[in-house]
Amino acid sequence: MAVQEMTSADFEQAVTGNELALFDFYATWCGPCKAFGPIFDKASDANPDMFFGRIDIDKNQDLANAANIQAVPTLMIVKKGHVIYQEAGALRAADLDDLISQAKALDVDAALAEAKADGADQNELLEEQEQ
C-alpha cells in the first residue's frame, strides 16, 4: 500500500479504520525527514497489510500539537487504536523493519493489562514488551 498524505481531518479515520498504522510526522525543510522518507516508502511497499500515513507538521500544526510532536521526523505506530510507539529520529531500514515486526507481534490487550498491573506508562507498549 502506498503512503498516504494525511491531514488532521482524516487522521482519526486512519487510526480507527486500521488495525495497525504507522505515521511519519515530517517537515519539508527537514534533512533527516528527507533521508527517512524513502525508507518509510519501502516499508510501506513491503507491508501492504498495514496503513502508512505521512503528516506534514507545518500544514497540520493542530495534529502535530495534539500528538505532542517535539521534533521531526517522528514515527508513531498505532495498533487497535492505541499508540504503541512514538519516537523522534530517522531510522535505518533494518531498525524500521524490526519495529514493524515487533508491532505486528504485539498483543495489545495483554500489553495494556500488564502495563496497568505494573503501573507502567501504557503509551510505551513496545518498549515495555522488549524488556
UniProtKB/TrEMBL annotation:
Keywords from the UniProt entry: Disulfide bond
This protein's record includes keyword Disulfide bond: yes
Coiled-coil segments: none
Keyword Metal-binding assigned: no
One protein family per Pfam: Thioredoxin
Domain Thioredoxin per the UniProt entry, residue ranges: 1-105
Listed CDD domains: TRX_family
Protein name in UniProt: Thioredoxin
Lineage: Bacteria, Bacillati, Actinomycetota, Actinomycetes, Bifidobacteriales
